[in-house]
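USER:
Before I trust my own judgement here, I would like a peer's view. Write it directly below this note and I will take it from there.

ASSISTANT:
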Amino acid sequence: MPIKIPDRLPAADILRHENIFVMSEARAASQEIRPLKVLLLNLMPKKIETETQFLRLLSNTPLQVDVELLRIDNRPTKNTPTEHLDTFYRQFETIKHRNFDGLIVTGAPLGLVQFEDVLYWEEIQTIMSWAKTHVTSTMFICWAAQAGLKLIYDLPKRTRKEKLSGVYLHDTLDLHHPLLRGFDDHFFAPHSRYADFPTDFLNQHTDVDILASSKEAGVYLAATKDNRNVFVTGHPEYDPLTLHNEYVRDLEQDGEPKLPVHYYPDNDPTKKPLGKWRSHGHLLFCNWLNYCVYQQTPYDLEHFNLQSFTSVND
């Protein structure tokens, strides 16, 4: 089944070129089916690139998914045209009265910034508090995972001395968990963060189920007992060249960034890296949409009080 997005969104042509089923708004309106309503809170600077990456993952499911894009503030950005933001992104005030089946909160380049110093920290708190009664399941990516753990469990910010960047091998810890259905015993996933997620620390200070971890990178995937909050510390949405582009950017800005590990063939940045995490990235999102969202969400979404789904941690 397809994803339904605005016809003129740049990602639409890119995904159609990749032979991904993108449904027009007119055709979707004629179908007698309720699509899943998924809200994407995009905190990344290059919003068009990021929204395309996530839409690609959301498309690989038999469910019809209606995606809406949410912005956090009105500040201008040099990385995304204002016309694009004004055309395709919604303000929180315009959607806060509605319920959604799923919410995805992306990462953000805020690894070295304290939470209280984040310009939109109050807005993040407001949206995450709202999600408790208006969203069936929320997926937090990278920096958002750290922010979500802070707001749900009051965990202090843990920052690494050096940036974690590369593609790491992970162990699947619970093959019977719905989010891990079909996963191999070991799988690769990219990371790009300063946040630190040690397994022992999360076990001691939270009751989340730790579902996948790496000896080098720490916890990769965790979820609350009711699966209403899913924490992904890496970037399953990344394209094969995203880490390379970040490395080139840091090279121009800082001069001496470390190479992303386990990424370039022969550790040579002149050689094209291979994407070896796509299949598990698609599978993770497919499982989340199926088991954490579709199987749990009410059919009559707009008239259902999600208060009954409130997390045991609230």
In short: Residues 310-314 have pLDDT under 50 and may be disordered.
